[in-house]
Amino acid sequence: MVEIDAIKDYFKKLQKVINFDSTFSFANIRLVKKSKIDDIICCVYAKLPDSYKKMLKTKVDVKRYNSVLCYSVLTKLLARKFFLDKNLCMINITEANKLISSIILGIERDINSIEKLFEEHH
C-alpha cells in the first residue's frame, strides 16, 4: 500500500524547511543546509512506489504526470549548491513552493494512474 499521506507530509516538511529554516535569505533566495534537504528527499523517495520511481527514471509519457515532471524539476532546483559553501543549497523559494504545491495536489492521482499502467503491462 502506498503511503500517499506520508509522502505529502514529507513534501510539507520540505516546504517548511525551505521557507523557515534557512541559514541566510535574500529576496526570494534561501540558503538551506544540504543535509536537511537530502534527509527529507531520501524519506520521500523511500515512500514512493517502484512504478513511480521507474517513471522518474524513464521519463516516458512524463508530460502526462504533472507531479513526476515537477518532482524532476524540483530535484534539480534543490541541487543548486551555494558557490561559497557546498554544504548549502541555494533555493528560489518562489519556484520551489510552486513545484511542491503542484506535487502535493497531483501526486495521489498520478501514483494511482501509474500503478494501474504498470499493472496492465505486467
Briefly, what is this?
By secondary structure, this protein is α+β, with helices and mostly antiparallel strands. 67% of the residues lie in helices and 15% in strands.
Describe this structure in words.
- A four-stranded antiparallel β-sheet has the order 1-2-4-3.
- It has five helices and four strands.
- The longest helix is centred in the C-terminal third of the chain and has 29 residues, at 93-121.
- The protein has helices at 4-20, 34-47, 50-58, 66-78, 93-121, and strands spanning 24-26, 29-33, 81-82, 85-92.
- By secondary structure, the chain is an alpha+beta fold.
- Strand 1 (24-26) and strand 2 (29-33) form a beta hairpin.
- Helices cover 67% and strands 15% of the residues.
